[in-house]
């Protein structure tokens, strides 16, 4: 068994792997890259270069394609920000060119026709095609449980319109202490929309001292509000700390106490393995511009468990779960009848509202074409090792500090590899953020900063290398040493 494979096994058992004394050398990092069976996927992406990051105007060049011989400006940057915006798949340009040619050549007929050598489905079928390609990524039993539409917060509102049905007795939403602001706004406005007081109808689960939400604390909160809570809505991964929650256990526990359970999977989709159908999740939403690499503001996704998507026609009139309805949620067999009676498409796609943007779907289809060449199991295996390697080298930096000196940073992401995704969040010592951020930028490192003191580092497995991690550490350590 190779060094890489043995580390995967250890990590999947929830243990911490051992690294050799020369782990911080470029030679060792490159040896791990050589064992990585997914390393070729890096060639499927356009990685910004140190030169392109400094561009001030369009010049017709593509990063990674040298124009006047290889220079330092042509060196790929260290792109550790896939948790915010994924790198551009090379397929996006090809797919967009095919889409523009289709539109230019056959106009409105593109709704129902496509060219024989095109990678794209007809426009009317593109959302369903992308849903089918996303089903295994989120663990749907069938593509009918997935719908690609809108953006994340819009989908959150639409799902809550159907699944958050407060009554006088059950009206509370249980959420975490620090949701992404857009989620908070959605929860707050939904309670207000129903004429409720957010102070009384929103229950925040407070963290432990280490900023984590233990599963036990979540379950205890569910018990405390089991009689008057209507909905549990948590992130699969907490965006600030990077903590991965025990989705199946929490879902089952809450449902047994009468709650509907939804998940915001913005930081999970394309990052960790999911089995939403088997876990019996009621609904979930996610964006596609982070780990799924579909581009800024790309079309988002939603999951609706098959039991909520049934359409009963036995009485001659469709009976289905209440929702905010729209034309593109209507079954294709009747969609163009222009009838006043709404007959939804069975499954999640019956929750669609409007004609989805073919241009947005084109970018998403291109991104998914890369994912469909591998599996979430293999991506997760690499990510486990890549993040553990990052963690190890960060710990070594701390160990090299003088004992009397306050640590320059602390890792606030769980140390248990099964309780995190790719991201590691670093809480810097007061006064370091500006200096460290400037040094990283100057040296071609792109990662996320959350003021006042947190840097989120995400070496995603699709296009990041162990070599990148090694080089990052040299730059980062020099920055914190001043």
Automatic annotation (TrEMBL):
Gene3D superfamilies recorded: Aspartate Aminotransferase, domain 1, Type I PLP-dependent aspartate aminotransferase-like (Major domain)
Pfam family, one: KYNU_C
Catalytic activities: 3-hydroxy-L-kynurenine + H2O = 3-hydroxyanthranilate + L-alanine + H(+); L-kynurenine + H2O = anthranilate + L-alanine + H(+)
NCBIfam families in UniProt: kynureninase (TIGR01814)
Main function: Catalyzes the cleavage of L-kynurenine (L-Kyn) and L-3-hydroxykynurenine (L-3OHKyn) into anthranilic acid (AA) and 3-hydroxyanthranilic acid (3-OHAA), respectively.
HAMAP family tied to this protein: Kynureninase
Subunit structure: Homodimer.
Official protein name in the record: Kynureninase
Originating organism: Neurospora tetraspora
Underlying gene: BNA5
